[in-house]
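Worked Example 4.2. Read the sequence first, then its structure tokens.
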Amino acid sequence: AVVSTQSTGIQLGNNRYACDTRICSFRTWLNSNSKMVKDLNEVVCHSPGTLIGVKIIEINPSYLCNNKTIDSIGFEVNTGTVFLIWIVVPILITFLTAI
């Protein structure tokens, strides 16, 4: 993942985002923190095919957030926990170590 921090905000573009229900919490976070993301217009979907190039911030949250994600074994996955562990924690660590 490409994460760049500067005193005026963070850059999250140029990543391969899979825009499915697993990205629901990230979409919500982007909405709440859009002023902090310098390249918000470059935070786009890489998949599925119908959403390639679509700005994540422009996707209706109900499209992403109404269903729980089922992993390949069939267990229900809490998307908030996945987002916290795989997205927020590495961003915070990178941001804090850059200060």
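Now turn to a second chain, presented in exactly the same format:
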Amino acid sequence: EVLHTIAQPHGKVLRIVIHNRANDLIESLIEFDCIVGAEACLNAINGADIYAGCCTLDVTFSKAQSLNVFKNDDDTYDYTNNNPSIAVHLKGIVKYYPYTLQCAITEIITNL
């Protein structure tokens, strides 16, 4: 929810995957529907803190062209899927060229 809230004002978010949590570092991928939204988000949030003085975002473009989300939960979410109880695999069916950002979040607060 937090990453979607941060990214959504800059472009249409299609999918988010949080794929690694270790050593006070979270890595995630945010997929947008177009390059304009992805670039706007990168320029707006790179180096910013999620919370005052902590959880700094290090944002770059990812090599991934699209994300595969098989279920909607705390670590993966497909905002193009209207029914979260159904797993949707869109590989090879994508009608647009998606753009994906890689976000590394450091200094994670564990007691929120």
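Notes for the reader: Residues 83-98, 108-112 have pLDDT under 50 and may be disordered. The longest helix spans residues 35-45.
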